[in-house]
Design a protein that fits this description.
- By secondary structure, the chain is of the alpha/beta class.
- The chain has a single domain, classed as Rossmann fold.
- The chain is built from five helices and nine strands.
- The chain has a five-stranded parallel β-sheet, with helices on both faces. It has a four-stranded antiparallel β-sheet with strand order 2-5-4-3, with no helix packed on it.
- The longest helix is centred in the C-terminal third of the chain and has 12 residues.
- The chain starts with 5 loop residues before the first strand and ends with a helix.
- The model has no long low-confidence stretch (mean pLDDT 97).
- Bound molecules: magnesium ion.
- Magnesium ion (MG) binds next to loops.
- Magnesium ion binds next to loops.
Length: 156
């Protein structure tokens, strides 16, 4: 498979783990502790999955732009968490609001000029994988977060 023109990620259960919940089911506000850990107001730990930082670094090194597509009910919480994790600026396109992922992808395609069939998409929910896959995007269903093994399985 050739390298993609754009790589798109879901957030909940794909890039991050919010203590076993979707981010919109946690307790806002969030804060960064002195040790760098991020917690919600109940002390629940909010973190990227272990392999995610190095995967994002690798994609950056390859010069491939990245985007986010999330249907969360609390876009401002998700955006705040991206900022606390210091990764928000790494994504050239951000579609974060309740809707269908087909809408998210239509907008990302228009904004980026990248064809849908040149994109990769990682998500943990099969219904999103099916919907976006029908648009021509190469979709990979992840379970319990994006891992090095899943990412490497697509790399040429
Ligand atoms: Mg998800």
């Amino acid at each position: 498979m050739a390298l993609p023109g754009l790589i798109v990620f879901d957030l909940d259960f794909t890039l991050w783990d919010c203590g076993g919940l979707w981010v919109d089911c946690t307790s806002y506000p969030f804060q960064k502790r002195e040790d760098g850990g991020i917690v919600d107001s109940d002390g629940r730990i909010l973190r990227l999955y272990e392999d995610v930082p190095e995967i994002l670094d690798e994609i950056d090194h390859l010069g491939i732009p990245m985007a986010l597509a999330s249907r969360t009910e609390q876009p401002a919480w998700a955006q705040n968490l991206l900022e606390l994790m210091e990764i928000r600026e790494r994504f050239a396109y951000e579609e974060i609001y309740p809707s269908s992922k087909t809408k998210h992808f239509s907008r990302i395609a228009t904004a980026s000029g990248v064809e849908l069939h040149e994109m990769w998409f990682f998500d943990d929910e099969n219904r999103n994988i099916v919907e976006v896959g029908d648009m021509g995007v190469t979709c990979v269903e992840v379970r319990n977060g994006l891992t090095r093994a899943i990412f490497d399985s697509l790399m040429p």
